[in-house]
Amino acid sequence: MESSEIPVEALEKMVVYLPDIGDEDAFAEVVKTLSIYFVEEFPTPSTFEQLRTTSAGTKIRILVDHLVLNVTNSALINALLTLKWHFNTLDIDDRGLNETRANACEIAAWRFLSRISERDAVEFCLYELPKPDSDSDSDAEAAKLQPTEHSSLLPQFRANESSTSSTPTRPPRGRRDELLRSVSHIGGVFADGEDGEDDEEDSTSSFTGLNSLEIAAVADCKSFMSQRIVQKIIHGIWNGNITFWESLTTHTQKKPQFYNKRRSDHFIRLRVPRYVKAFEVLFFATFLFLYYAVLVERNPYHFTALEILLYVWFAAFAYDELSEFIDAGSIFYAADIWNGCDLIIITIGAVFFITRIVGRMKDSDSIVDTAFDILSLEALFIVPRIFSLLSLHPYFGTLIPCLKAMTKDFVKFMVVVAVLYIGFLTTFSLLARDNYTLTEMSWVLIKVFFGSSYIGFDIMYDINAYMGPPLMIVFVVMTQILLVTSLISILSNSFSNIISHAREEYLFVYSIYVLEASTSNRLTHFYPPLNLIALLFLRPLRLFISAERLRNVRIVVLKVTHLPIVGAIWLFEISSGRVHGSVLEFSSLGPLQSTTELIEPAYDGRSSKAAKQKQKPDLSKASIGRSIHNLHDYDIADGRAETLEMKQDDTGSGRTEILEKKVDHLTIKIAELTALIMSQHNNSSEES
Fold this sequence. Notes:
Elements lengths: L7 H7 L12 H15 L6 H6 L4 H13 L5 H14 L7 H18 L3 H8 L13 H6 L13 H7 L10 H9 L13 H8 L7 H7 L3 H4 L2 H12 L2 E2 L13 E2 L14 H25 L7 H24 L1 H6 L1 H26 L2 H12 L2 H8 L7 H38 L6 H12 L3 H11 L4 H32 L2 H17 L12 H8 L8 H15 L1 H18 L40 H13 L2 H16 L1 H35 L1
Antiparallel strand pairs: 1-2
Helix pairs in contact: 2-5, 2-11, 4-6, 5-6, 5-12, 14-25, 15-16, 15-20, 16-18, 18-19, 21-22, 21-24, 21-25, 22-23, 23-24, 29-31, 30-31
Pfam families: YVC1_C
InterPro entries: TRP_calcium_channel, YVC1_C
Protein name: Calcium channel YVC1-like C-terminal transmembrane domain-containing protein
């Protein structure tokens, strides 16, 4: 009997050459290394569900196992999400390969986070990419690039600002345009050789200063943002358990950290997103009260005290929106659906103010009445705006993406309706030129379109005795049967498609709001209407005093004016702590689940019951591939103790226990592989 052996060629095909990423590797180098892996290991297209649930995602699981055991580079998640953006922006792809690789990057990112400790996940998600060519000797230049009160939100623009002006302004190019420009050249990372090294760094330079969550928001990584660990981090930022400022002082620097109420300054609680939202609702409630009071009073002859206060609220609201747009950037600002409502409120308020001034100057009652009529339109937007707090609730927040998508489809469909309507309107107006004007015929056709078909039948002979009836029948059939039925079908299909992922949409919008409210580089944030103090009295001081001294003045004024607000926040947190107790939000002892299994939230945000059960030993071909890759990458006999010691030195004793479990798991896999090979050998021997 001859012993059966696995061919060497078959073993080589099963071996996966995993990316080698060092702790000190630059971001561009990490992107290049990972991109090569995804291009080589995903040569065939697969859907998102196939990558997540079938053997098509085996290479992702192998990669995640390798990354968890061997990679501690802080820019890892940034690089994976950047590649997600890059593959999505590649247009030359008729088989869906780029979409497959983009989905693989996103899945690998959240699976890696679910396999490490929660505090490590916080560090990975909030790690901001440093400047690629930063030098440890250039401390003066680094200090010059530190965010100040007037620095841009994107740090990659600060170098240009510091060299051109002492009072930097935000560049005209938006974040999305910059990133589109940069990722369009990331294709150079696939090139080999040293010639493309400079291009690689240039292609990723626009991501400087962004953390992983911001990159995920820019890259539309909605599945990544909806994962439990990511949402826990977002929720920690929302509640103020994770802050970006330690104290409200002149020389403080922005960095993510866990809030320590004994050490941190109480005034930094002004930047907690949930308190910002709470006082925003209070501001709108006062805004709504002044609005109704002015309309009820309606004094056409004098500017009353209530009307002047309403103008103050309009000015404070407009300045706050401008500051928010400058701080957050156009991409984050446009992602919040309520910001569009805010712009309409400001526009109507400005038109009302101008019309009111013109009416008083000309002493025209008709113009003044028109001004108040314009002001009455504000109720259409101010009332929903004050109830925008409901959008943070999962039930109401889930409906908003559906309504948004249905509105887009409705507007697109109305273009077809308008074209047909103009054609019929022209024909009917010419045929009925002796009996109906253009305006009268327009209203008749509008009534027919919205269901009053009997009106069309009543006047079809008045339009034209011979051509009127058949044309009106065609118009009624097209509108009542074809167009209306098609519109209902399109909206129903749109609702069905969006509702299945509406939770992801809701969590994505919620996450963007939290990031928009918390990651700004502006240290001092004045709540409206107190922000008018900074606009009227502090900004003019920029012409006379230095930036550092002005920042100190802003801090003092902020503490004096916002002391009652901070006191209210302090009382709320004290009472809330006594009621709910102190809860440890983030654990540093281990990963979210056992290291021998992967508990991954289902695509709709709900955990799978099967995923919570302990996985049984798997002797399938996929298991053989994973075991062979482990044999290929790790020398168990000689390297276990050295690897364990290295990990213990790098990440502390808390990481040692995790690595020991990983090594034990790897040993079990080797035993399974050996048992399988022996079983195949015995079977072949018996057959022969």
